[in-house]
Structures are given as structure tokens and as C-alpha cells.
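thread: overnight batch results

M.L. [08:02]
morning all. the overnight job finished for the chain we discussed friday. pasting input first so we're all looking at the same thing
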Amino acid sequence: MLTILALASVILLGIVPQQSEAIVIYTGWERHALVGSDIRLSCSFFSWRWTSDDVTFSWSYRADGARDSIFVFHYTGGSPYVDNKGPFRDRLEFVGNPGRRDGSILLKNLDYGDNGTFTCDAKNPPDIVGRASSVRLLVFEKVPIQAGVITGAIIGVVLGLLVLVVVIYYLMRFLVARRVFNLSVSKHGKKGKGKEGSQQRQLWRPPPVTCLPLTS
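M.L. [08:03]
and the structure it wrote out:
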């Protein structure tokens, strides 16, 4: 009986299709780059399933101030497909590793017009349900100093000044204590010399002279 139930369970599991589970996609939040430089935009995903041979990656781009997005890259069936008519033709390269759930792309020779939002979407069948992740690209002539760096520098300067004040305070206390100690030693030394001098004067006092009467 147990054998029949086990066989029935196996048959039912084979017949019922696998249910898809959520897939979580990761990209950076914001990237900064210089004009004329290259930048890697990373995209990876988490899935409870093994990496499927049918895994796909798609990248879209929406320029700053634009309403619509355009597809600039797609990976499917083991082959990458780069848009050869859009703003990144001849400047986009696939540098990911789908087997390791990496769908990163490389943008080359950046310009101010490349500022915008890049969105990555991934599917790992049967896990196809998930929210795409976006990263914003900002291209500058000079990469600005981030607020966190400035805050850290200010905190470092303030801590350095506090340490310097504490060191100066204890150094002054040490010098004052040393000065008081030297004065105290000098004062006691003078008193000791005075007592020794008075004792010496008492020791060397001449004896009294006794006058004898003259006899005739």
C-alpha cells in the first residue's frame, strides 16, 4: 500500500507543473563617471532555482528628461544582442557571466548625453516574477566629492583638534607641576643651607677670655 502511494505521489509531482517563485534583481543605486571614461553597470539576481539555460537579461535606458525608455541590450538563448541603432551603438559591451547570474554591461567613451536611468530585468525560468532594478548614471567633467566624504573629513578635523587640545592641556599641567616642584626643591634647599650655616657659626664661636688679676 505504501509503495502504491509513493508511486502515485511521484506521478502527480511529475504531472503538476513547477510553480514560479519570485526573483530578486540587484543593481547599484547611482554611479558617477567622467566624460570619455568607461563604466561597468552591474546586474545580478537571486533565485531559489538553479541557474537555467534559458536565463535572460534585458537592459533599457531612459535619458534625463525623456518619458520613454529604449532597449539597449538583451541576452537570451546564450547569445548577447546589442542595439546597433541607439545612442550606445558600438559603445556597449556585455561583460557579465550568465552562469554566475551576472548580467553586467560596459559603457564606453561616456558623454554628457549619456546621463539617465538604466534598468535591468532578469528571468530565470521558471522564476520569472520579479521587479526590475534601476541605476542612475551621472557623467561629469570632474567627479564631485560626495557628501559623505566631506562629512567624514569635517569629523576627522574636529576629532584631530580635540586630541590636540587635550594633549596641550596635559602638557601644560605637566610643565606647571614640574615648575612648582623645582621651586619647592629650591626653597627647601636654601632653608637647609641656612640652618647648616648657623650651626657652623655656633660651633666656631671663640671661647670666652678670662682676665687674671695682676699680683705685685
